[in-house]
Automatic annotation (TrEMBL):
The keyword Repressor does not apply. PANTHER family: SPERMIDINE/PUTRESCINE IMPORT ATP-BINDING PROTEIN POTA (PTHR42781), SPERMIDINE_PUTRESCINE IMPORT ATP-BINDING PROTEIN POTA (PTHR42781:SF4). Signal peptide: none annotated. This is ABC-type spermidine/putrescine transport system, ATPase component. The keyword Nucleotide-binding applies. InterPro entries: AAA+_ATPase, ABC_SmlMolc_Importer, ABC_transporter-like_ATP-bd, ABC_transporter-like_CS, P-loop_NTPase. Residues 1-226 form the ABC transporter domain. Keywords: ATP-binding, Nucleotide-binding, Transport. GO terms for molecular function: ATP binding; ATP hydrolysis activity.
Length: 229
């Protein structure tokens, strides 16, 4: 579950975020420079909002009022970047194992690297290095490493944009399957409106920091409906 209600001052505008998602995929669309990456980074703890509150799985990770700002490594978030960010000197298996939490597992899903490699159908690549696998395979390894962290929320910053259409379609299906299996919210930044339509249970467009709901309903609308019932 993610509930984020915050503002972040940027040099040319202020980003205003107000989202709520308990399960499923929230797609974030918008022009270049609209504030999408800033949104993800505020949720992850890589940037600090100017004002507001962020809750993940009912835990407050940021609150300007309470002075709470939980560091990124304690937020239980998987973050997938466009450029995969794999370690070139480590094998696929070592890259995946790198995601394993250092402390004892805190979730009921105790995962081995073998489980995750199998889940993403890359067991046969375990001993290869990143320069010996394709772009689509690299993205699977990056996804495997993110899942290995046992996240409560997965942030995906244009994860498929560097891939060819065929690989992209396969991985889109894979994301849907993983989300259904994992049952945690995914936030997907994409430039591709069709991808947002296909994968997003909710779609939010950001323009100059202001959000517009394209698909799904705002928390305010849902609460209003409950109050009227
Ligand atoms: N480190 C920074 N310092 C100053 N301004 C920044 C910094 N990073 C981003 N910005 C500005 O903040 C605004 C939002 O940037 P952001 O990266 O969130 O946009 P985006 O929607 O993710 O864009 P893109 O689709 O091109 O990745 C932009 O106007 C950008 O110029």
């Amino acid at each position: 579950m993610l509930e984020a209600h915050f503002k972040k001052k940027l040099p040319s505008f202020e980003l205003e975020a107000d989202v709520s998602i308990s399960n499923g995929i929230l797609a974030l669309v918008g022009h270049s420079g609209a504030g999408k990456t800033t949104f993800l980074q505020c949720v992850a703890g890589l940037q600090t909002p100017s004002w507001g509150e962020i809750n993940i799985s009912n835990k407050t990770v940021f609150s300007s009022e309470l002075g709470t700002n939980v560091p990124i490594r304690k937020r239980r978030i998987g973050y997938l970047f466009q450029d995969y960010a794999l370690f070139p000197h480590m094998t696929v298996e070592k890259n995946v194992l790198y995601g394993k939490p250092k402390e004892e597992s805190v979730s009921e899903k105790v995962l081995t690297a073998g489980d995750v490699l199998e889940m993403l159908k890359i067991t046969h690549l375990r001993n290869r290095y990143p320069d010996q696998i394709s772009g689509g395979e690299k993205q699977r390894v990056a996804l495997a490493r993110a899942l290995m962290t046992e996240p409560e929320l997965l942030l995906l910053d244009e994860p498929l944009s560097a891939l060819d259409q065929n690989t992209r379609s396969i991985l889109q299906q894979e994301l849907l399957r993983l989300q259904a299996q994992w049952k945690i919210p995914f936030i997907l930044v994409t430039h591709d409106r069709q991808e947002a339509e296909m994968l997003g249970d909710q779609i939010i467009k950001i323009d100059q920091g202001k959000q517009e709901i394209i698909k799904g309903r705002s928390k305010r609308e849902i609460i209003g409906e409950l109050n009227r019932a």
